Amino acid sequence: MTFDLTASLPARNFEMSLSLGPSETLAILGPNGAGKSTLLGVISGLLRPESGSARLGGRELFTLDGGTRRWSAPHLRGTALLAQEALLFPHLNVLDNVAFGPRSTGASRTEAREVARHWLDEVDALALANRKPAQLSGGQAQRVAVARALAAEPELLLLDEPMAALDIHTAPLLRRVLKRVLADRKAIIVTHDVLDAYMLADRVIVVESGRIVEEGPTRQVLERPRSHFAAGLAGLNLVAGTLGQEGITTPDGRVFAGQHDPDWSLVAGQAGVAAFPPSSVSVFLGDVHGSPRNSFPVTITDLEPHGDQVRVRASSGPSNTLSADITPAASADLGLAPGMEVRFVVKSALVSVYPA
Ligand SMILES: Nc1ncnc2c1ncn2[C@@H]1O[C@H](COP(=O)(O)OP(=O)(O)OP(=O)(O)O)[C@@H](O)[C@H]1O
User: Fold this and answer.
1) Mean pLDDT, to the nearest integer, of 119-127?
2) pLDDT at residue 42 above 90?
3) What backbone torsions phi and psi does residue 253 show, to the nearest 5 degrees?
4) pTM of the entire structure?
5) pLDDT of residue 319
6) Which of 28, 141, 267, 320 could disulfide-link to 86, CB 3.0 to 4.6 Å?
7) Which residue's CA lies nearest to atom 4 of ligand 1?
8) Which sign does the torsion angle of CA 258, 263, 269, 273 carry?
9) HSE toward the beta carbon, residue 331, CA cutoff 13 A
10) What SS3 class is residue 121?
């Protein structure tokens, strides 16, 4: 049972194709306005793309190609969408909120409540069965919303930042519940949180400007990011260029030495990236001309506390921001301030180089 989608919606500059295997959970990451909610809207049937097609197992969700215009209504798709807010029916108690789906597909009241109890138990919320939604905390309401979504037995569960409205103490419990219930089902989760991706997703897709810019197994994308967005999430600096024996050569001719897998055979001239943590970068004042290895002239854009360090953010070109973590004492000694031109020097032992 797989899920396949191709859809284009030019009014939102949206064009994506993706597939999902049985029991696979996919995380969608990307900046604001990248098209993540649009994707969920298209799959769930709330938004109609201009062209494309989608199938979920044996079911056709839509076919909008050439003269063929077939569109199936949201409630016939076998998908369930879980939003940031739980959106429970305020006048029904928790049990009947969850029983609503089975009831509307023909189950008797007793059967529907039985199903509801089962799913409430699955999300550790059976004890809340008689409460009204107004008597639930945000995290409890979200768990009930998960039970309600699952009670409809969707083939594909869609989650739009389910943890976004929860505080940091409540999110871990919902995350554990989701880990359990997503383990053997197909799901797509939109998130801004690397932890969600690590814990819940088998695979990650990074979207920017309505397009997929990077995809792969979660660990690979977050540990060896190829897009600036994924690198930012993973807390790594990223420099793009072409691969050579020593490392990366940037478009402006700087050589950036680093480590690469010994078993990887180099194709010179191939596009590649160098990734390195802010802790591997030192900051120096002075001559920003000349170009010794792994040394970048940069302009500081901002300074902020980061744990017990100071994070120095700087631009090294029109669209590349790099970060260095240094001690507060070093920052004070150097007299760092936004607008200053300094040199970032990176230890090559801590730079990973790999194909883009
Ligand atoms: N109701 C709407 N009408 C027209 N355009 C919209 C509408 N909602 C979103 N858009 C546009 O569609 C594009 C994709 O937006 P979308 O909401 O899917 O992004 P997103 O990745 O979910 O962002 P966020 O992380 O902020 O929720 C953006 O350019 C946005 O401005």
Assistant:
1) 92
2) yes
3) 90, 10
4) 0.84
5) 67
6) 141
7) 12
8) negative
9) 20
10) helix
Q: What's the chain's length in residues? A: 356
- Mean pLDDT along residues 183-191: 93
| Any ligand 1 atom below 6 A from CB of 323 | no
Q: What's the complex ipTM?
A: 0.93
Q: Determine if ligand 1 sits within 6 Å of the CB of residue 102.
A: no
**What CATH number corresponds to the domain at position 309?**
2.40.50.100
Question: Are 255 and 163 within one domain?
Answer: no
**Which atom of ligand 1 is nearest to 35's Cα?**
18
Total domains in the fold of the chain: 2
Cα–Cα distance measured from residue 227 to residue 221, given in angstroms and rounded to the nearest whole number: 9
Atom of ligand 1 nearest to the CA of 207: 21
Quick check: 289 pLDDT over 70? no
30 CA distance to ligand 1 centroid (A)? 12
Q: Which amino acid is at 198?
A: Y
Asked whether residue 230 is assigned to any structural domain, the reply reads: no
Q: Say what the pLDDT of residue 296 is.
A: 83
Which whole number is the average pLDDT over 163-171? 79
What's the rounded mean pLDDT across residues 18-39? Answer: 94
Looking at the fold, whether 191 and 290 belong to one and the same domain comes out as: no
Task: State the pLDDT at residue 292.
Answer: 60
Domain containing 241 equals 235-355
229 within domain boundaries: no
Ligand 1 in reach of 33 Cβ (< 6 A): yes
Dihedral pair phi/psi, residue 355, rounded to 5° = -65, 145
Q: What pLDDT does 162 receive? A: 86
189 Cα: distance to centroid of ligand 1 (angstroms): 16
Decide whether any atom of ligand 1 lies within 6 Å of the 191 Cβ: no
Work out the average pLDDT over 261-280: 83
pLDDT at residue 85 in the model: 81
The verdict on 189 and 244 lying in the same domain is: no
Q: For the residues of 8-40, what is the DSSP string, one character each?
A: EEGGGTEEEEEEE-TT-EEEEE--TTSSHHHHH
- Return the CATH number at 26: 3.40.50.300
Q: Is the CB of 36 under 6 A from ligand 1?
A: yes
Query: Does ligand 1 lie within 6 Å of residue 79's CB atom?
Result: no
What pLDDT is stored for residue 27 in this prediction?
96
In angstroms, how far apart are the furthest CA atoms of the chain? Answer: 79
Q: How confident is the model at residue 95 (pLDDT cuts 50, 70, 90)?
A: very high
Q: Which two tokens stand for residue 128?
A: 């809340």
